[in-house]
Amino acid sequence: MMRRIRITRGYSNAAAKPNVTIQPAIQRKPTDLLKALSETVGVDTTAPHFAFIDDPITIPSTQNAKKTYFMAKELGKRAARQLAEEWPTLFAFDRDQPRLPVFRPEKLADPLQIEPTEKNLLEIIKSRQVQDACTLYERMRSENIDVSDSTQLELFRLVAYYNSRNAPFAEWHEWHGMRNFAEDETHSWQSASVADLLFETLPKTDETVSIMIAALCKFANSESVERARQLYKENSTLKIRREAYNLLISTSNFKIASNLCAEMSKNGMKPDVSTFDSLLIAANKIEKFEDRVDAFTKILSEMSHLKIRPALSTYHKILKGLDDKSKNKEKEMRHLTLAISWVSQILDELSQTGEPLEPSSSSCNLFFYEAMGVAYRCANIEIAEKLRHLYEHPNNRVKMPAFTIESNFYNRYLQLYIEQTASIEQIYTKYIELVPRLVGASESLCNAVYQKLARQPHWALLRRVIEDGINAGQIAGKLGGEMRKQLINVQYHTLSVAERDEFTQIVQKMVATLVEFSQFTDEYTKRMQRKLSPSQISDLALLLTRIGEIPKAYELLDLLLDENASEGDEATVFAKGYPRPSSMAELFEDALRRRDAYGASTCLEIMALNGNRRSLEPLANRIFERCSLTDTQKKIIEGFVRLRPE
Questions:
Q1: Closest Cα partner for 253 from 288, 300, 207?
Q2: Residue ranges per domain, the chain?
Q3: Max Cα-Cα span within the chain
Q4: What is the pLDDT of residues 56-88, one digit of tens each?
């Protein structure tokens, strides 16, 4: 019986066991999972930029602070790399697997110390160390070491492209901060350089002549351009490359450039987008605005005829030509109207194609910046919205450099949005979306928000703008007075309990910050000191009374009556200036309401700094009416008022 039960149970278990079918693996790219996560999670528009995620107190709010923060991180990394290059033996026992070359950098070879061989020369050429390559090549020539034509051609390509100088910051792929923030110097062609020597040494072929013409035009001055044209005429039998034609066209006026295009067609050389971009550069040299616009129209018509799709760099050059700032305001407005119509047509065409926007040159991203500038000057929020939507669309692969051009693009957009939008709630939503993630809290931007808040109060937006302003260091500047004015105008009794707590925190933070800056009196911090002005003290005292911190308010007011606070090397208050009359009047009324004789007398003494007997007598009488004073106290106040000038 037991055996039968076991057999039956075995059969039932076998029947219940499901068949497992293993599906074939789905072929995915290495970044597919990251893309899926990005599409699912999205972007947190209220968070700081990923490059600045750190302790909240160190997250930068302004463009200058962002630059300082980003460059500090990058230069620290470069310093560590330099140390590893100079003292590699310090890391000899590190055995990381897999070995990462970035953590084991090797010092570049010294062209004066290494063996002068063709192999070493090619290695330096490959690393794009232009000046080191020139040094090693000249050393090999001085030691009569033969260099093959192929190696000399490689060196010629390098030195001609960079004008015998090292690669500019714009081509530093690894160091993003140097690439975006550093300014490249413009250089004209170096005569009698290694490039000239190699050009005379190498045989005159289509490639070498084209390289030389292109280099002379790339680093153009009057002499180099004339020499390039002479080379073009002398080598008319050779097949000049398209790049040389393009640079020749860009350095010519429109008439000569048109003739060069005709010669290109005659020689069987088909133009590309760069050719027409160069032709637009030549067209921008036309002085008369109407003739310039006609030239733009003809160029676009020719591109359409040849079925060449304009790039964003093409449209950027057109917009640069339409930006004709004239002293005649009426004429300038006509030009702006034409420019905004061009921008509208360009955006419609780009939106209708549905094809991805690919970068064709380094200037493609400037189209968005230039177009937003036109929309801003024309106060056209609809065009600005279309432009932003196009820039953020997944099909757009042309991106502006972060923290520089992109920040200016969004800054113009946000300022225009604030000016043209009536709803303060929509402005608040847009502000917290862009500041400080993409747009720095600049003075002009904050001032625009304050002007809007003066007409439409909105506590949440005011709190955010003031916090950004404090973090941006605006509290001690011109906008500091606007911050205090906005806070004073807040109807405290209309705030909710949570909003009153926020109001209290902002006032406390503002007072603590200004007092701390005023107390930087020692020799090491003196340069950072910002003394308190009488108007600041009166405003801060009023705000402190609003949040119930009355003793601290009168501690600040006492500074106005303390001569030691405004004199000497350790002064914390400006000797010049007067307290704000409206703030002092409200402080005086508050003291009377509380029947505070000391507070009212203090306010009276401060108002006497810029008042006369006639204005002080009614105030003294009100103190006598509302406060309980002894006869001696009354006589002291009467004597004080009587001694004031009439």
A1: 288
A2: 105-170+188-202
A3: 126
A4: 667 888 888 888 888 898 899 889 888 888 887
